[in-house]
Amino acid sequence: MKFFGIILLLAFYTTLSFGQDSTNVEKPVDSLKVTPVDTNVVDSSQVEEVKPTQRFTLATKAKYEGGDSAFVKKVRENIAYPAEARQRKFKSKLMVQFIVDKDGKVRDIKIMEGFPEDTEAEFKTLIEGLVINAINVASETGWTAATNNENQSVAMRKTLPIVFNPYKTKPD
């Protein structure tokens, strides 16, 4: 029985060590799961040609020039940290979700999580606005749309962590 317990512990620690990133670099969430959107939308002129059972699958993900880590870096460079965030010593890892549409434009930016429950609505709105603005600025160039198995550009939902930490930047 003791032997079985030791085997279970070894299996558990082995799983943990393989799941960790030794580079300590934050991994984008969408590298784990891709959620394509608008993949079944077809031009109304092609309706006769589309079979009801036809399924589109994602062939390539939406890409930012230099990768997701380059995008996150560019976003962080464009965040304007207000004095109020420094005074409150507010820092957080915000999970941001957005869609890279079939033209490579970013839309529907939402902060999904990362604010403590006791964050006032006005302060939360301020921070959300700053992060969304930084994402829009960083997204002006660099995105290539995802493609499906028919080699058509499609929209794709992405979720990335954005660390909001005004202590790692110079004051305004």
Structure description:
It is a single chain. This protein is α+β, with helices and mostly antiparallel strands. Helix content is 31%, strand content 24%. The protein has one domain (27-168). The protein is built from 4 helices and 8 strands; from the N terminus they run H-E-E-E-H-H-E-E-H-E-E-E. The strands form 2 sheets. Strands 1, 2, 4, 5, 7 and 8 form a 6-stranded antiparallel β-sheet that branches. 21% of the residues are buried.
Total strands: 8
Over all CA atoms, what is the radius of gyration? 21 Å
Biggest sheet record = 6 strands, antiparallel
The SSE string, one letter per element, is HEEEHHEEHEEE
Shape: elongated
Number of helices: 4
Note poorly predicted spans.
Answer: 8-52
Q: What percentage of residues falls in helices of 4 or more residues?
A: 25-40%
Overall pLDDT metric: 75
Strand percentage lies at 15-25%
The total number of structural domains is 1
End-to-end C-alpha gap: 62 Å
The helix/strand class is alpha+beta
